[in-house]
TrEMBL record:
Signal peptide: 1-16
Record SUPFAM superfamilies: Dimeric alpha+beta barrel
Gene Ontology molecular-function annotations: monooxygenase activity
ABM domain segment(s): 53-147, 194-289
Keyword Protease: no
InterPro entries recorded: ABM_dom, Dimeric_a/b-barrel, Heme-degrading_MO
Protein name: Antibiotic biosynthesis monooxygenase
Pfam families, A to Z: ABM
Amino acid sequence: MGARSIILAALSLAAARGFQAPRGASTRTLLRAATVEAAPAATGAERLAAERYVVQNRFKVKKGREAAFEKRWADRESRLGNLDGFRFFCMLRRVDDADAADDVNYVSATVWETKANFDAWKKGDAFKEAHGGGTVAGVAGMLVATLQNTKGKPKVAAWEGLLPLGLPGAPPADGEGWRRVAADGEATLPSDVFVAMNRFPVAEGSEDEFERRFADRSSTLADFAGFKGFLLLRRDDKVDDGATHSTFSVWDSRASFQAWLDSEKKPDEQPRKNLLAGRPTPSYYEGILALESAQGV
């Protein structure tokens, strides 16, 4: 679906809810405004509806094995981008290790429209192809590489994606479901995108209020050059790292993210802290092997 079609669809849905487009508004402003207006409002104690499903695998890659780890991912066969409900993928390479409270330095992140889409992929042939091809030799090779490159097995974190905001993506022009990226195993791959996450330990019983305050905020994200997509994430499995919620914003570069961050005023930061059981933890990543759907994040 093209950008014009997406805007018209969003405006139609928003119009049904009373939204009036301002005269002379830019395409970017119309898309942001229509998306926000079309999103379900959080009222009272209502829980925000999940509009995406996000699965992350957290890796502890051994020092000196980063390039080899990335090559394993670059060389894999995958039809991910051609599957129903796929929205976005990238391998996140952490860039703030000096301040990190853990040694998780790589995170694979896949955004789906629904949990059912993710479950269908996990049970299908595409999952086997991406994990050793389903053969004994392929699986054995994957396990050996895991032992060589990482400290233990990856840990999964599943999230419901709330309040999506984004622009259309650019899938591979050749129709491939996976990007072909040359990797020699000696040098790490160049960055495709920049991803910022801010992980929140929301106090028990305060989850709905925390989400409502996010839904009520006015956002300037889509007005900034380089913005690609945003989700508020709500944990959908066991919380093993204290983070019940997290922001997930995608940019074309760190400079674009920093330009927005430097301009942002946060008058509601203090009230939101009253809902937390601890301090929020920001983490920043270079995204490699990024794969987009036509709809974007």
